[in-house]
Amino acid sequence: MKKPVPTLAEVAKVAGVSQMTASRAINNRSGVSKEKREDIQRIADEMGYVVNRAAQRLSGGRTRVIGVMAQLHTTFTAELVLGAGGAARAAGYEMLVYSLPDNDRRPPGSVVDLLRQIADGVIALLPYESDYLETLSAAHLPVITVDYRGEESPFPSVASDSYEGGRTAVRHLAELGHRRIAHITGNERLASARDRRRAYLDTMAQLGLAIDPAQIATGDFSQRSGFEAANRLLALNPRPTAIFAANDISALGAISAIRDAGLRVPEDLSVVGFDDIPVAAQLHPPLTTIRQPMQQMGRSAVNMLLALIVGLEAPSPRITLPTQLIVRGSTVPPTARLRS
Question: pLDDT tens for residues 21-42?
Fold first, then answer.
């Protein structure tokens, strides 16, 4: 016969402590010495004790589980999750991550119900479709977003300063001597993409540079859209001498299109991205980009969520982290031939 799962009372009895002490130790709560906590956790593991997270949640307790909703196939969100995971573990929490197949669709009802039962709070990364977050919030589950789709997020949120980062990218190209600067946009359902497009328009105007609507090519943050957008820009006469892409992935697509056209980066076109994903430094030439503190964004989202979980107010409805220009080999001054 299958051995029955031991109860918390049985673990406490073997460890020679009260059930409350055993519970505190197993759930990494204060009030138990490090040595005693490790001893109780070892006994619980040896006995095969399993924490019933759903029961904890239903009884009004904390499960010490954070739910995360994200599309994990992008490097950006993977870096965010990496940072969030480190912060969660440091606080004695575990993370339950659900990879959304498509941000345009809400997750299955079963996933939402699961989070309601076992999570103390939820972090949503780049939520395009967000009505499910309102369902979670209505169930008294704290919610934090990283970036958001509306003009203002109804939930506390974490983001980088996309507007200032976009301004820095355009200024960098202008300071090199570029005048025909194009922009490949991101998915404008997200505030970050809208902020980068607005930064491009504002900075071009402030620098007295001509804004040609044809030099603003629609993208969606994907490599394919970057490739297609760059092809449209290359067909212009005169063509741009520089491209500011809304993220590194679309910049990679743009570079592929430039090379397919028999042109060179940066000799014929300079390219700036946004994010500073790990592969950006490994390209040939390495990509000049605007660095977002992606892992720090994940850590900040967890810290903000933990404050809400214990009943505190969020320190701010929106935390905006600074960006940084990283100059590499994909940007140089235009030649006299290109400036003409």
Answer: 887 787 777 778 888 888 888 8
* CA gap 234, 245 in Å, rounded: 14
Q: How far apart are alpha carbons 210 and 75 in whole angstroms?
A: 34
pLDDT at 336 > cutoff 80? no
Place of tokens 């345009």: 104
Q: Please work out, in degrees rounded to the nearest 5, the angle formed at the alpha carbon of residue 273 by the alpha carbons of 154 and 80.
A: 45
- Domain total in the chain: 2
Q: How far apart are CA 227 and CA 245, in angstroms?
A: 11
Regarding whether 238 and 188 lie in a shared domain, the answer is yes
CA distance 84 to 300: 8
**Binning pLDDT at 50, 70 and 90, where does residue 338 land?**
low
Q: CA geometry: angle at 283 spanning 102 and 250, to 5°?
A: 35
- Cis amide leading into 266 (omega within 30): yes
- Give the structural domain span for 307: 65-160+295-321
Cα distance between residue 2 and residue 8, in whole Å: 19
Q: What does the CA dihedral 91, 93, 99, 103 come to, rounded to 10 degrees?
A: -60
Is residue 211 a part of any domain in this protein? yes
Residue 231 lies in a domain: yes
Tens digits of residue pLDDT in 260-276: 999 999 999 999 999 99
What's the full length of the chain, in residues? 340
Q: What is the pTM of this model?
A: 0.78
159-174 per-position pLDDT tens digit: 999 999 999 999 999 9
The CATH number that applies at residue 92 is: 3.40.50.2300
Say whether both 155 and 235 belong to one domain: no
CB 121 within 8 A of CB 143: yes
